[in-house]
Predict the 3D structure of the following.
Amino acid sequence: MITASSTDPLLLRVARGEQAERTPVWLMRQAGRYMADFRKFSDTIPFRERSETASIAIELSLQPWNAFQPDGVIMFSDILTPLPALGIEFDVIKGKGPRIDAPIRDMDAVRRLNPMEDPALKLPFVGETLRTLRQEVDGQATLLGFIGTPWTLAAYTIEGKAERNCRATKTMMMKQPQILHALLGHLTHALADYVVYQIDSGAQVVQLFDSWAHHLSPDQFEEFSLPYAEKVMESVRARRPGVPLIFHANGGAGKHELLKLSTADVIGLDWECSMKNARAVIGSDRTLQGNVDPTVLFGDEKVITAAVEKCLKEAGPRRHILNVGHGVIEGTPEESVGIFCDLARKSASLFQTA
Amino acid sequence: MITASSTDPLLLRVARGEQAERTPVWLMRQAGRYMADFRKFSDTIPFRERSETASIAIELSLQPWNAFQPDGVIMFSDILTPLPALGIEFDVIKGKGPRIDAPIRDMDAVRRLNPMEDPALKLPFVGETLRTLRQEVDGQATLLGFIGTPWTLAAYTIEGKAERNCRATKTMMMKQPQILHALLGHLTHALADYVVYQIDSGAQVVQLFDSWAHHLSPDQFEEFSLPYAEKVMESVRARRPGVPLIFHANGGAGKHELLKLSTADVIGLDWECSMKNARAVIGSDRTLQGNVDPTVLFGDEKVITAAVEKCLKEAGPRRHILNVGHGVIEGTPEESVGIFCDLARKSASLFQTA
């Protein structure tokens, strides 16, 4: 039996690539509308107020921790949260998603953006949330911070709202790629500073969400997303070495050969690929995170167990963080999330030899 | 220089796997709102009327043929068109997409479905459209018919409308898979009859659109989509041998190993994978179709040429049908479609050795 190699929490050790006593687990969109306790807040408090008020963000971050004891606690926030610090105001319309008042569409708009400068001044609630969570969780789980990648935030700020084909952004990519590159460059610097701030406030692992990578062909991903995410990671590593970074791309199934080239400590996988193939392409020397289809959580314990055990086995006993391949869906029974976490806690038994 | 091996049109010969004088081309959603001539109809005639009136469907099918002379002419129709023949009524709401009045949600509803029986009686406009198109095109291009796959039509009829997570269908899959399998079985028989009718009416190649395959993990695709599509193809081949069948799955990037197992003559690729990887996994002995990102058509001739030539080179001089990886997007300049088709006509020069 393998025992803990240090006093660091399990998920942090596995993110670093260490051999561990079992597979750790957390779930994307861990705090969310599938929880009745969450809906008490979301039904009454506007989106930005609940993600930008530390006391509320702390409470919401801890709800799933208190209910399911996952190995990772992720701060409740949004990938768009840092945008107002750069001069990009946004709101979230219930049932419709984010709206940016003044989408960024030309070079002048890019030039007018503010630098991040001091995140502690502009986004103090993020620091307060992380500092308090680190104390509350008290080493019993790993505290995760996160950002949206430069590509994903660029596409949001150009579109101004979710758009099926990302048409404004893709048109800019085809006609005026220099504007897109300038915006990506600006976001890269700002996001690196924001990650450093999250680490200094207590985040032990930071995930880069490339939520809109599915809008990119592999060639476009190689030019417009991966290099900027790499620059963020390089800048963070130079200033705060040793903090594991997770890169998760939605729509990554056709991009595994490129993801393999990433320097991220952990590669997050969506559920549109098999863990087996991802492991074969990306290799056994990288920690993989994922990748159960979240709709499996609508099934009974037998259905959930079959899907999770297949994922665990295909990933192998080392270098795997169990997760869903996309956020938990509204309407998911809360007890399913408990079953999911319990299966990770029992994962060592799957790999015991007779 | 290779010359035509028979009097059959180019695309048909390449779909069969024959060596040919150049790469053929057509575009998905070839007739559509990107064309001003199309909008004259779509702005005034309701969706079902224009897809179920032979004279209009013929006119719309021929618009891109007259404008761009692609190597394939696909009948203007919809994947939902056969559903009313089975007792499933639908309408298409402008700007919102299809709506099915009574979604199929239980075993009784599946049992009440009609068999296809005689498509010539129930869907005579499809036969008339194909017969006329075959005459009009007169061997200068290949006439394509199409269907939605059993999975895609099952998901549509269970959801009743586009739903982000396909939640009703996936819940049924997790909780009552026997109902889903019964519905898939019913659709499989009906669709095989419908394909045979399309062939008898003049279709020289038939494409199976698995438009909602992105809602399936590879395991789910292997259980709920691929085997039913295979049964359709097997039934068609037994009755009308020698007609090439194309299988196109949206969200196929993580499913190439499974697509390789398909017996389809042609595998259609979406644009979220690289043609190079698809060719490596699926092999050089299968005709591949695709897979240029349709947003490339918003770029200038240089941008379009670079993307198309990369695709052509990665696919190789044999067994490739040039296409976009997803339907042409509204707002696409018409001249871009012309440039796209011209590049296929010049494709032989790419492969000439000094």
Observations:
- Chain B has one domain: 10-353.
- Chain B touches chain A at residues 165-167, 170-171, 173-175, 214, 217-220, 251, 253-255, 257, 271-274, 277, 293-296, 298-300, 303, 307, 310, 325, 329, 331 (CB under 8 Å).
